[in-house]
Amino acid sequence: MENGADGIRINPGNIRDKKRIIQIVRKAREKEIPxxxxxxxxxxxxKRYKGPLAQAMVRSALDSIKIFEKEKFYDIIVSLKxxxxxxxxxxxxxxxKRCDYPLHLGITATGLPPSGIIKSAIGIGSLLLKxxxxxxxxxxxxxxxxxxxxxxxxxxxxxxxxxxEIIACPTCGRCEIDLIKIAQQVEKRLSRLQAxxxxxxxxxxxxxxxxxxxxxxxxxxxxIMGCVVNGPGEAREADIGIAGGKKIGIxxxxxxxxxxxxxxxxxxxxxxxxxxxx
Length: 278
Ligand code: SF4
Prior knowledge:
binds iron/sulfur cluster
């Protein structure tokens, strides 16, 4: 805090001395920065907080809140992370009934993808669907960039963030193109395009502070379909899409064919259309 941190997190399981907690709270109040009370199932004081784990985690957070409030400190965020989905979601559900402080959601130590991604998506997603949670963190045993990408995908799947969404058919006997490869190519190019498609407004450019910018990524549904026979119809809700055939592929908008192109030019032609749309 002395060195300019914008916020801190304390784990009541690691700092158990009340005097030291008060010292931290007073410093945060002086510096006007928020504190996250981050309860973690692994470091919970089980001698003090007995009984079912989710309830015990909530009691630990509530005890810390009491200390904070006694110091008239209310700039609080709470997280209650366990490494399994059911305990974590139960703890947040109980906590949401007991306090109005913002909740930071996450499942801790989820492990390697894909299981870590699935646990995070179910845990964070099911809470957000109930209207519980204010910020999220995906924890994966993997590169941190992947955590950001997964978090973004969770928010987008729930309609809480906009962006370019790719849908693709599961393929069947009619598919005559390498659909997986094409979908990967399109996703790679679009994620780059999406990152650069944001054009700040003139008044935003005057401010060098990123927080003054309002991020407005494009919203677009792009379909990659395996065959021209059923592709455009099956992906009617897509803003734009491609469907592969024998040597010739098509580009369609809202289910209507707008162009025929050579199969080898399909991805390039699709990206050119998208660039014109966003
Ligand atoms: S779009 Fe064509 S290839 Fe894809 S699942 Fe449907 S019928 Fe099969």
